[in-house]
Amino acid sequence: MPNPELEEQAASERSEIPATEPESERSEAAAPAVESAPGSEAAPGRLEKPPAQRAAEATEKPAEKPAEKSADEPPPPPSAEKPRPRRRLRTAAIAAGTVLALGGGTIAAVYATRGNSPPQPDLKIVAPAYRTLAISLPWPQDGETALWAQGIGDLGTCGDQTPVPIASVAKVMTAYVILKDHPLADGQNGPDITVDQQAETESYSRDESSAPVRAGQRLSERSLLELMLVPSANNVARLLARWDAGDQTAFVDRMNNAAAELGMRNTTYTDPSGLDATTRSTAADQLLLAESALTDPTLVTLTGEPSTQVPDDPTVLPNTDSLLGSDGVVGGKTGSSTPAGGALMWAAHRTIDGEDHLVLGVVLHQASGTSPEQGLYQALIVSRRLIEAMV
Length: 391
Prior knowledge:
- It is a single chain.
- The protein contains twelve helices and eleven strands.
- The chain is of the alpha+beta class.
- The two termini are 39 Å apart.
- The strands form four sheets. Strands 2-1-11-10-9 form a five-stranded antiparallel β-sheet. A two-stranded antiparallel sheet has the order 3-6. The chain has a two-stranded antiparallel ribbon with strand order 4-5.
């Protein structure tokens, strides 16, 4: 039986994400909609409540059994002509709208099943001067979380900290390894890389997020990193892995070696995109990566781009992180899939005790029993609450 209190809580949560006009999938001439949340990712722009008519239509359609997919977006249906590179499976606005219309009750039901006891953060590693702040934070009840602030140190963890699928958050390690092997100075675009046939073929996939690249194109390292991190293109993550290490298996070895060097003892990477559910980590381990990756000016700038494009293609590909640009958020990486739920690594400038601090956070496995869209929505909600409370 539905729990009225949890339904009311879900309704209040839905009002917390700033609204923007929902966009639907568009033709090539139109600007792309904000991305949604599949296994690779999704959710650019700001999440918003869709029109009542869309909500009604959504409830009238029988739900299809969801296939495990990356929270990015499925491409447009194939036509008799040669398929065009998909522009993005969905858009964050669409995904968020669906959750706002239908997902609140589902998430509330999941929480009812999991229990409603207050979260118990682990503050043992928090400096005594900051424990009052840490204990006051609105720690997520679901999944696992870890926080750190530059100049302060650890602000605590919450949740079991057992390895879980991390979806497209894995792309932060992919970018970290690429930039270690091929650093980019300020303003540099890096070497040109030839797009192979595999990357083009994967751009037509219906089951994951991708970017519409074409075989034979020469794109700069910076352009490809943006395409991987901003709209969360899985096909580009694999292309970069092949370029850097010769093949994806060798690149994954480099990812795991980098994780070991950073002390990430509970992390295993099995693919460069995060689509594999066997790519697993903990919030605490991913925070160790964030401390190196998101304090690097080049990498954090790449993740903070509001949108990007494939050169010579008119389609604008929005960032999957709808928190960018508000509450001091300057960068991060979303992740969402059926097994991973919603995940988010973020970096935000916050004023604590009168001083500016770069705060890093990781939330994983949010609403993992629901859909990728609902999981990502919840990851964005709980992250925004934490960021706003950092004062």
